[in-house]
Design brief:
Blueprint lengths: L1 H14 L1 H13 L4 H12 L4 E4 L6 H10 L5 E5 L6 H5 E6 L4 E6 L6 E5 L6 H13 L1 E4 L2 E4 L5 E6 L12 H4 L4 E4 L5 H11 L13 H12 L5 H15 L13 E3 L3 H17 L7 H12 L4 E2 L1 H5 L4 H11 L4
Helix pairs in contact: 3-11, 10-11, 11-12, 12-14
């Protein structure tokens, strides 16, 4: 087994070399935000969609756009607004008078990287049109069904501070996002550097350094990352603690959780941990990988009760308690 892990390790060191190229290009434009950039790469490598939440002005849109510039691929930014229609997203049928037939006209969803900007500004029917494409990786226009090109990744942003004129995503829809990121403010030194860069005469742009074929190949390599049975059991224990906290010595959480994390959480914890190990040029998953991405996979999958709200407990507080409670193998 040791020989196998050694071989996997060497292969991943070779195959993950392009990650450094991407990070170098992104850092030409984006100052700091290492957490956000790394998580976007995890989504890309494990074929999982990402929801970014943070106040305006934190470079969420710019980071996604910059990442897309480093890949030889199609990128589409869609600004979600209250008057957006599903047809504006997926496309529609155009009547051809000459031939008396309808021909499908594809919408902006037919791209590789989709930035769904302020997803909570559009009503449910638009959100569901996007989420169907995310889940099925296909779009139906009239009687025609079209497969979406690989890689296909949706990176959605939402603003947590405004409730007026927004349509919050239902929990069942949020569950389809592999990761939900909470994007924070930059450090003092980083903000100084941001000011200097943005007020210069010329602003640098990221160059294309990776092809979609390399990303697809890397995804296959990520699947080979070794996960020990102890790590798998550790992940299942974490997820089950959110469902039956009293069985794991967290009786105080019993009345605070309405619904624990779904089986998607277990799957995504392993997938994201494999990608996290790959980004760090490692061929095996450690408990630290699970703990590093645990909050991003779980924060939107633990549904709290009114009692938790009354006690001003957030899902992040609950996940933190769970991660600190479950014994690390």
């Amino acid at each position: 087994m040791n020989l196998d892990i050694k071989a996997i390790n060497e292969k991943i060191e070779r195959e993950s070399a392009f990650v450094t190229k991407i990070l170098n290009e992104v850092s030409k434009v984006i100052v700091g935000q290492d957490y956000m950039v790394e998580r976007l790469l995890i989504g890309l490598l494990s074929n999982g969609h990402i929801l970014l939440e943070g106040v305006p002005g934190l470079a969420k849109t710019l980071t996604v756009k910059t990442l897309s510039q480093t890949i030889h691929t199609k990128f589409q930014r869609i600004q979600f607004t209250p008057d957006l229609l599903p047809a504006d997203l997926i496309g529609t049928q155009i009547f051809n008078q000459k031939e008396g037939t309808f021909t499908p006209k594809k919408g902006p969803i037919f791209s590789n990287l989709i930035l769904a900007d302020e997803i909570n500004r559009s009503p449910a029917k638009v959100q569901s049109a996007l989420l169907e494409a995310m889940q099925e990786r296909q779009v139906t226009i009239g009687e025609n069904t079209f497969k979406l090109e690989d890689p296909f990744l949706v990176l959605a942003t939402q603003n947590p501070i405004e409730q007026e004129g927004t349509y919050p995503l239902p929990e069942a829809q949020v569950d389809r996002f592999m990761l939900k990121l909470s994007v924070g403010y930059p450090e003092k030194e980083e903000e100084l550097e941001i000011i200097r860069r943005q007020t210069k005469k010329t602003v640098e742009e990221a160059q294309r350094v990776v092809t979609p074929a390399e990303i697809i190949r890397a995804r296959e390599v990520v699947k080979e990352v070794y996960v020990d049975e102890k790590i798998e059991k550790y992940v299942v224990d974490i997820v089950f603690t959110t469902r039956q906290p009293e069985n794991y010595g967290l009786e105080e959480l019993k009345g605070l959780i309405n619904y624990g994390a779904s089986p998607r959480a277990s799957i995504y914890l392993i997938q994201a941990a494999k990608a996290h190990a790959f980004l760090h040029h490692r061929g095996y998953v450690t408990p630290e990988d699970i703990r590093a991405i645990g909050m991003d996979v779980m924060r939107h999958r633990v549904i709290l009760s009114y009692e938790a709200e009354a006690e001003e407990m957030s899902s992040e507080d609950v996940v933190r308690k769970v991660l600190n409670r479950v014994e690390v193998p």
